[in-house]
């Protein structure tokens, strides 16, 4: 019995695990595990209604730099993660990928974006964490706070776009990834600045978004290998 189980492992399970690890990469796997531990701690703290001291401190510190000019910049940046802008970018990207016969990329990109929406909506309802009300925010938000949909969605969408573009234009990969990182970080910062999110909302959004992004890219790589 033990010998049969061992043979089954060698023939069926081990090759798939090995392929998965090779596809994700040691760095990707290690980063996902590390982020999972951080997320687990954050989730526990939020469920127990624990107050994060640095959340309040960061919001007050950042609020000290507010001025009309910076307000306008942050309000513009945060629109890069708004549903109206995201829907346009996703629709145009899917159309271009489909017309250029990159069907696998289009399908996985659609799954990545749809999954991000489902994850964000489900987690907001589950944790039901209220928005910060330490000072008047620059915009009004009615949904729950944790995690940040802008942080989660922007990391998944812009991160996946950066991966696709760098795959097709490898010479510009460093510039593409750098631009994506700056855009994603700026969107997260803007949400804290305008007063609609706690810093831990942004951290959680990035963490969940990163793990989901890695899973979607892995799915695309595995599908491409099979083709």
Features of this protein?
single chain, 227 residues, mainly alpha, 9 helices, globular
Molecular structure report:
The protein is mainly α and 227 residues long. Helix content is 78%, strand content 0%. It has nine helices and no strands. Helix 5 runs antiparallel to helix 6 and helix 7 packs antiparallel against helix 8. The radius of gyration is 20 Å and the shape is globular.
What is the arithmetic mean of pLDDT? 85
Oligomer: single chain
> How many beta-strand segments?
0
Q: Provide the β-strand percentage band.
A: under 5%
Task: Please specify the SSE layout and strand pairing.
Layout: H1 2-24, H2 26-47, H3 53-63, H4 68-78, H5 83-99, H6 103-127, H7 149-168, H8 173-193, H9 199-226
């Amino acid at each position: 019995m033990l010998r049969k189980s061992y043979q089954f492992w060698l023939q069926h399970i081990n090759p798939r695990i090995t392929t998965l690890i090779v596809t994700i990469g040691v760095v990707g796997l290690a980063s996902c595990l590390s982020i999972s531990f951080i997320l687990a701690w954050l989730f526990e703290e939020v469920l127990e209604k624990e107050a994060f001291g640095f959340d309040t401190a960061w919001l007050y510190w950042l609020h000290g730099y507010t001025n009309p000019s910076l307000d306008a910049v942050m309000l513009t940046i945060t629109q890069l993660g708004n549903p109206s802008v995201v829907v346009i970018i996703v629709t145009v990207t899917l159309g271009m990928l489909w017309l250029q016969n990159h069907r696998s990329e289009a399908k996985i990109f659609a799954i990545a974006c749809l999954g991000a929406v489902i994850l964000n909506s489900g987690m907001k309802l589950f944790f039901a964490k209220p928005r910060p009300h330490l000072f008047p925010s620059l915009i009004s938000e009615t949904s729950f706070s944790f995690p940040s949909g802008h942080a989660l969605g922007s990391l998944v969408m812009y991160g996946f776009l950066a991966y696709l573009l760098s795959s097709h234009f490898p010479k510009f990969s460093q510039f593409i990834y750098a631009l994506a990182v700056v855009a994603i970080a700026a969107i997260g910062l803007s949400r804290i600045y305008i007063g609609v999110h706690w810093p831990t909302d942004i951290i959680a959004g990035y963490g969940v978004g990163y793990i989901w992004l890695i899973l979607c890219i892995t799915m695309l790589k595995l599908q491409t290998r099979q083709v």
